[in-house]
Specification:
Strand order of the largest sheet: 4-10-9-8-7-5-6
Order of helices and strands: HHEEEHHHEHEHEHEHEEEHHHEEHEEEH
CATH class of the largest domain: Alpha Beta
CATH architecture of the largest domain: 3-Layer(aba) Sandwich
Radius of gyration: 22 Å
Bound molecules: ligand PLZ
CATH topology of the largest domain: Aspartate Aminotransferase, domain 2
Structural class: alpha/beta
Number of helices: 14
Largest sheet: 7 strands, mixed
Number of domains: 2
Shape: globular
Strand content: 15-25%
């Protein structure tokens, strides 16, 4: 987008044509130039999925500095659900940044923060009295959920699951399951974190129900930790980085009711799965599960950094005055972005859009899985869908094919992401406003890449 475009009054049409256009090889010369500048300035610990540098983005298209237009099936890891450069977001954020960009809510409060907390109370599962606190990143929200659960219960232990991802800060590294690249040589990690098996239907014993998988986890927690020592059970209702693992039906409700019975706080990490992504406002809604605390981030603010902990008023308000906060948490520009994003999600009924995306994508992934025995499973919900690559007999994870397919998509101008404990899952997280045609074109490229790699 040129400066003139950015200055123009926002309208409903995206500023970049919603078409895939390749004008150079990917990455092109200007991207390659930036890559070499980067090598001398940016720490190599910070990596990027694609090697093409962004010039502008709108709707479901990312335009690079060489003029190539890529179809975005990743949404910056489930963030730009309302599409890039959504007009309502541009308007709200521009207006706010011109009015004031920061006072610090802990110093001088403002309406936007309160309004975001009101929206969170309205949209998150359950009709009980709720309170929220706002932060900058998902990891920070998760850390604060644990702080609140410990404070409210007077207990210390935290239960998490195999394949879980909760962040990269010290406590959240401890909560995250996968060593490399997240934790390797970054320890020591926070104590009082206990990991138990997740419900992972593809890899669990055949026929294991969600209730049985929950009982397996509950038994380990009872024996190894003791329910009376647990502050909280923290779970992603659909796992994100861990591989889009959807627990078997009954797993989440069984865990939630065991928590309720024993005074354990049930915390749902909806940072990746929340805000319309799975075809409901929150993934917990699919099974009518009402968590005590919910962490949100990513899709909440259309790309501005914002995160939240929302929960039962009595738990949230158990923390002493001044016990929660941070300089930027609930920054006014991020709050304006969130209010615009949430309004857009409501107006465009993006939960329904996510369901439509599933109806379009799932059959195509299913037919890919029929054709290629190396695709062991198609799973996910709404616009959070994935294929797991593994050999059909032993389910040995096939990361190299997953990476090769993803790279082939990137070279053809389609951004897809991988995930999974073994890096063998290709995940799709398109903006929920993507057109059916563009989505089909992205899937054509993915399908061809799978043929090229898997034969
Ligand atoms: N909880 C469920 O998905 C972030 C991380 C990518 P932050 N996932 C993307 C990476 O490699 O760093 C995430 C999540 C769930 C917590 C987080 C953490 O959110 O905003 O990245 O801190």
């Amino acid at each position: 987008m040129t400066q003139r475009d950015a200055d123009a009054a926002p309208d409903a049409t995206p500023q970049i044509p919603q078409r895939r256009v390749l004008v150079t090889e990917i990455p092109g010369p200007r991207s390659r130039e930036l890559s070499s500048r980067r090598l001398r300035a940016v720490a190599q610990g910070v990596s990027s999925t694609v090697q093409t540098y962004v010039d502008a983005a709108a709707g479901a298209i990312v335009r690079d500095v060489d003029g190539n237009c890529l179809i975005d099936l990743g949404s910056g890891i489930a963030v730009t659900s309302i599409g890039h450069a959504a007009p309502a977001l541009i308007e709200a954020v521009s207006e706010q940044v011109a009015r004031f960009s920061h006072t610090c809510f802990m110093v001088a409060p403002y309406e936007g923060y309160v309004a975001v907390c009101e929206e969170l109370a309205e949209l998150t599962p359950g009709r009980h009295e709720k309170r929220s606190a706002l932060f900058n990143s998902g990891a920070e929200a998760v850390e604060n959920a644990v702080k609140i659960a410990r404070h409210a219960t007077g207990r210390q232990a935290v239960a998490v699951f195999d394949h879980a991802y909760h962040g990269r800060t010290n406590l959240t590294m401890a909560l995250t399951a996968k060593n490399f690249p997240y934790k390797d040589r970054f320890g020591p990690f926070a104590p009082e974190v206990y990991r138990v098996p997740m419900s992972y239907p593809l890899r669990d014993p055949k026929g294991m129900t969600g209730e049985q998988a929950a009982a397996r986890a509950i038994d380990q927690l009872s024996v190894q930790v003791g329910a009376e020592n647990l502050a909280c059970v923290l779970v992603e209702p659909i796992q994100g980085e861990g591989g889009f693992v959807v627990p078997a039906p009954g797993f989440l409700p069984t865990l939630a009711s065991w928590c309720a019975e024993h005074g354990i706080i049930f915390v749902a990490d909806e940072i990746q799965s929340g805000f319309a992504r799975t075809g409901a406002w929150f993934a917990c809604d699919h099974e009518g599960v009402v968590p005590d605390l919910v962490t949100t981030a990513k899709g909440i603010a259309g790309g501005l950094p914002l995160a939240a902990v929302t929960g039962r008023a009595e738990l949230m308000d158990a923390v002493h005055v001044g016990g929660l906060g941070g300089t930027y948490g609930g920054n006014p520009v991020s709050c304006a972005g969130a209010l615009a994003a949430i309004r857009t999600m409501r107006e465009l009924d993006l939960p329904a859009a996510a369901r439509r995306i599933e109806a379009q994508v799932r059959p195509r992934l299913d037919s890919m899985a029929k054709r290629h025995s190396g695709i062991a499973e198609v799973r996910g919900r709404g616009a959070m869908l994935a294929i797991e690559l593994a050999d059909p007999d032993g389910l040995r994870p096939d990361a190299s094919s997953a990476q090769a397919i993803a790279r082939a998509c990137h070279a053809k101008g389609v951004i897809v992401l991988t995930c999974g404990t073994w890096g063998n899952v290709i995940r799709l997280l398109p903006p929920l406003v993507i057109s059916g045609d563009l989505l089909d074109e992205g899937l054509d490229v993915l399908e061809q890449a799978a043929v090229d790699v898997l034969g």
